[in-house]
Amino acid sequence: MFKPKGIYYEKAIEDYELGKQLLEKYKDVPKVVIENHNNIEEMRKKQNSEFADMKRNLIIGVRKTHKFVENHKTSDYLVPYTSSGCTAMCMYCYLVCNYNKCAYLRLFVNREQMLEKIIKTAQKSEKQLTFEIGSNSDLILENSITGNLVWTIENFANTSKGFLTLPTKFDMVDDILPLQHNGKIIIRMSVNPEEIINKVEFGTSRLKGRIQAINKLVESGYKIGILIAPVILVENWKELYTELIQRLSQELSHKAKKEAFFEIIFMTYSYVHTKINEEAFPNAINLYDQEKMTGRGRGKYGYKEKNRIDAEIYLRVQMQKYFPQNKIEYIV
Ligand code: SF4
């Protein structure tokens, strides 16, 4: 259970029910009132080496921008929702590209406003839209602090149109299992080999817990996706990812194996990650591989075409062997 070291909050949260609840829940935690959750000078001035300590804080505010971004993968829109950032510290976390060292967890208390916009957009559309509500944070983790995912499912499941989807690396799904979700929620569990979780995905759930969570969610009728992501081409990647796929095949329930779809995503990395990781985690492995990676513009790196294609072919063969019936939505 995450217990914040300090809370930085905008005074306006006192006007919201969730804001009041959180202030009460953490009444014993030291607090600082801030003007704007996007610009906390004290945090901006901290060193990269303090990254892990910064993640122990909780920032609470009111979300001001509500712009939906069109998406063409597993959803129609990426939607800014009830949180951004995270308490975990995956060394490749895409949020670090957006927020730099300030990728700590921010909670937004105006959830009614955000969900209402989703519901209205869904009702107005002629087709069934899918909204990605977890592209800025991990909502299973966030739910363990706010109960927001339970609240969201309870308030969305009975609306007439649309689906919500979210990815996660956490196994704390028990609170949402008994809910009447009416098949409108799609949860995509992200998995990686145990060795990579241990060495790179600090503060997330173990692989065993994630697999058990998939089985429980499927049993409760949720639509499930499995993200093998991000694929990291470490020295022994073939062995590690083969073991991972075998393990999924052995430990997923029959129902999960029958129903789950897959997404496979290769790691992208950046100069910002390199700087923060070498100062914050000096003993950790270096994810930047000069031999296998190349620049992708604006300080970003991805795997060279040849390395990526070789790996894609290899992974498709393994998937065909162990999950021949399951759809792979995409490999990128
Ligand atoms: S769990 Fe997701 S949001 Fe959290 S640090 Fe890892 S990649 Fe980032």
General description of the model:
The structure is a single chain. By secondary structure, the chain is α/β, with parallel strands linked by helices. The chain has a single domain, classed as pyruvate-formate lyase- activating enzyme, CATH 3.80.30.30. The chain is built from 13 helices and 18 strands. Strand 1, helix 1 and strand 2 form a beta-alpha-beta unit. Helix 10 packs parallel to helix 13. The mean pLDDT is 97. The site of iron/sulfur cluster (SF4) has 10 residues, from strand 7.
List the helices and strands and how they pair.
Elements: E1 6-10, H1 17-25, E2 31-34, H2 41-44, H3 51-54, E3 57-61, E4 69-70, E5 77-78, E6 83-84, E7 89-90, H4 95-99, E8 105-108, H5 111-124, E9 130-132, H6 139-146, H7 148-156, E10 163-168, E11 185-191, H8 194-200, E12 201-202, H9 207-219, E13 223-231, H10 237-251, H11 254-259, E14 261-266, E15 269-270, H12 271-280, E16 293-295, E17 300-303, H13 305-322, E18 328-331
Parallel strand pairs: 1-2, 1-3, 3-8, 5-9, 9-10, 10-11, 11-13, 13-14, 14-18
Antiparallel strand pairs: 4-5, 6-8, 7-12, 15-17, 16-17
Helix pairs in contact: 10-13
Bound molecules: iron/sulfur cluster.
Residues 86, 88-90, 93, 95, 137-138, 169, 204 line the site of iron/sulfur cluster (SF4).
